[in-house]
Every structure is written in C-alpha cells, then in structure tokens.
Write a structure and sequence with these properties.
A hairpin with a 2-residue loop joins strand 13 and strand 14. It is globular, with a radius of gyration of 25 Å. The longest helix has 39 residues. Helix 3 packs antiparallel against helix 13 and helix 6 crosses helix 13. Helix content is 41%, strand content 16%. The protein has 13 helices and 14 strands. With 422 residues, it is an alpha+beta fold.
Length: 422
C-alpha cells in the first residue's frame, strides 16, 4: 500500500526520497526572486492595521458606559498588543474604521478560548484547537476568496513509474486551502474566447493527454483531485496544515504541507503563472509560514520552499528557521489575523493579476511561437489489480481494485449427514 503524505512527512528518509524525485528544495527568504518580494512584503505587513483612535477614545468610553468588565478586558487585550508592538496601530489622528471593533472582538474571542484550553487540565486534540480557536478567527478573515476545508489535491507526476510506496502517492489533503473565487475564474474559463477554451482546443495542448487516462487539459487545469462541475480553471494561493498539539510535530507539518504546496506550485508553473504559494502551519497555538515557488533549474521544474523567518534577519534567533506567532500573545494573534486578511486580499488582487498575465503569456507562446505545454499532474496506475490504501491522519479510507478476470470463490457444497436409525 502507498504511504500517505502524513506518513511520508513523519519519516525524514521517506520525505527525502519524495522531495528528491520531485525536485523539491528547501531555500531561505534571501532566495525569494526579486519579482515576488513586493508580494511577500504586502502579505506579511501588519503595520497600521488598528486605529489608535479606538485605544485612546472609543474603548475608554465603552469602559465607562458599556458592559464594564468585558470591555475592560478587551481594552487590556488591546493595550497588551500595543505595548508589544505599537506598529500595529496607526496614528491617533486616523479615523476609526467602523468594522474594526467587530474584527478585534472576533480575535479576542479566539484568544479567550485559547486561554481557557491552556488553563484546563484536559487533553485537547487537533480538532479541538481548530474548532475552538483557529476557525473562530481565521474563517471570518477570508472574505473575498474561497476557503475550502479538507480539499484533496493531486500530486505532481514523478519522473518515472515505480512501485515505490513513497513515490506512488497520488494525492494530499491539506486541512485548509484558499482559492481564487469562481467570480474571478469564470471569465477565464467559460466563454468561447476564454484562455481555458483557447488552450483546451489548441492541438499542442490536446495531444499532451487524454480524458481516458485522466491527463487531458481539463484534469491539468485544476490542482484538485476531483474535477469541478463545470470545465474550467481552479487556482489555489495558500495551503494550511493543522497538527496535533505537540510542538515537535511542527517540523512534520512543514514537510507535509510542502507536499501539498508543491502541487499548487507545479500547477501554476505548468500554465506559465509566476507566483508564490503561501503555506501556513498551525500546531499547539503556534503558527509558522513558508513561501514556495517553482523555477526552472537545469531545464527541470524545481519547487523551492523558504521558511518565513521575519523581516528582520538580524534580530531572530540564529538557530531558528521560522518566525513563530504564539497565539497566547495578543500581538501575535492579531498579527496572524491580519496575515490571513492579507492572504485573502492578495489572492483576489496581485495573485489574480499574476494568473491572468501567465495565461496570456502561455497562449502567446503556444499559438504564436510554437511553444510547448507540459502537463504536471500524476496520471496512470502503476499498481493496477492491487489493493491501494491511502491513509490520512485521523481519516482512514481504503479503495480496492480487482482485475476484470477475477471472480468470487465458489461456495462449497454442504452435505448433510444422515442420522443413524439406531
């Protein structure tokens, strides 16, 4: 049986095999291409997000005329965030945003629930953290893009068909994914002159795969393992992995999420779309981020992955690859909320622009310059006739295939023993 991405990630030797054959390399923030650096700065910039007007004027009024104790605690929450990072707050002269108190209240609720989990002596699962803390504030932060949970993505095609249990893994199921919404992909897909129709009907693209093998352009145009109801593009900008509340599993989660982000990066690269893919790792109330992208090295697509270490390289601890947001801290949980808001806005903004530019370049290359289209998705079945089990942590499913010539065993004939008359 094939190994799941979770089992591959837990074993460094298995992951080394998978990443080597799929040309995945770990990098650092200094390796991020210059053309992506403006995007990264926009994504991780959380300065001036809350007007100091709320801290100086509005909350004191609430403390006097509002619910009292609740407002005082919210004020203390904001004051703690301000003391730790005054850059979160804009100048006092800025006008207060009418929605900002509602946003802060959502983050504050998640923070209170996390403190309650910490104070309890009970053992909490990954699902408990997701339901009680993470989704309380990260789901409302996704407003314009599409937020999908447990969406299975196809993995890239390995260089050769093999019976290796590591390389034969075809799909991964990240816990969360952020997609370009249908309102923005529809104009790229449905009309007769849309990029999807032009590419799908081009002879160079048509002969690159077949529907019977699951390798036609309709399959290649989405990173998802399941085709959308209507033929067309799907694009994912960010993939997230949740892990059980054991701090050491953060490294496993990073490797597992890299398997999923490699799929998204290869999908974008196949369509000539130059864009990073953002990965987030959530475990035990701690969040990490990584930036992945695909580039050509020695005429091969290589997926690079850079752990996000923060803007100030000199101030971080030298033996740590990642900047960590600890959600117990008011400053950090607010920063993560605004990071997710940034991902949402970037997906429908600059990421969308990169998608359009890449598709236009690909059409020009194929139609005017006799360029090539290179499919990326895992196709074929090297283990036909065998039982293939794909295991997902906390969600085990089994699929069995049999050859056409097999038949159920014949039932043996039962003979009834005659009783003796004596």
């Amino acid at each position: 049986r094939n190994l799941s991405p979770s089992r591959i990630a837990r074993n460094t030797r298995n992951f080394e095999t998978w990443s080597t054959y799929h040309h995945c390399e770990e990098a650092s923030c200094v390796d991020i291409p210059d053309e992506y650096k403006a995007d990264i700065k926009q994504l991780f910039e959380t300065h001036d997000r809350i007007s100091k007007y709320w801290l100086d004027k509005v909350l004191p009024v609430f403390m006097q005329h509002g619910k009292g104790v609740a407002d005082k605690r919210l004020a203390a929450f904001l004051k703690s965030a301000f003391d730790a990072s005054s850059e979160l707050f804009s100048s006092p002269a800025a006008a207060g945003d009418g929605d900002i108190l509602e946003e802060i209240s959502v983050v504050y609720l998640a923070w209170k629930r996390l403190r309650k989990l910490r104070a309890s002596n009970e053992k909490w699962s990954e699902a408990d953290y997701v339901a009680n803390v993470y989704n309380v504030f990260r789901s409302p932060a996704i407003r314009d893009s599409t937020f999908r949970v447990q969406c299975t993505v196809s993995l890239p095609q390995p260089p050769s068909t093999t019976v290796d249990r590591v390389l034969n893994t075809k799909t991964a199921t990240p816990d969360c994914a952020v997609f370009l919404p249908a309102a923005l992909t529809r104009p790229l897909s449905h009309s007769a002159k849309s990029p999807y129709r032009i590419l799908k009907n081009n002879p160079a693209v048509t002969k690159s795969g077949t529907a019977t093998r699951g390798s036609s352009f309709r399959y290649q145009s989405t990173p998802c393992a399941q085709l959308p109801d209507m033929p067309g593009f799907e694009f994912v900008s960010s993939l997230w992995e949740d892990k059980k509340p054991v701090h050491t599993l953060l490294d496993d989660a990073y490797r597992q999420n890299r398997i999923a982000t490699a799929s998204a990066a290869r999908h974008l690269h196949s369509l000539n779309i130059k864009s990073p893919v953002i990965g987030l790792i959530w475990a035990n109330g701690t969040v990490r981020a990584h930036i992945d992208w695909c580039e050509v090295v020695n005429e091969k697509p290589v997926v690079m992955s850079a752990p996000y270490s923060g803007f100030d390289e000199d101030s971080r601890v030298s033996d740590r690859l990642f900047h960590e947001w600890v959600l117990d801290n008011p400053r950090d949980i607010l920063q993560v909320y605004f990071l997710v808001r940034n991902i949402d806005a970037w997906t429908c903004g600059q990421f969308h622009n990169r998608v359009i530019a890449g598709l236009n370049d690909l059409i020009e290359s194929i139609t005017l310059k006799e360029g090539l289209y290179l499919p990326w998705k895992w196709v074929g079945n090297s283990s036909a006739g065998l039982t293939v089990k794909v295991l997902k942590e906390n969600n085990i499913s089994a699929t069995t295939t049999t050859s056409a010539s097999s038949s159920p065993p014949k039932k043996g004939r039962r003979t009834r023993r005659r009783r003796s008359s004596h």
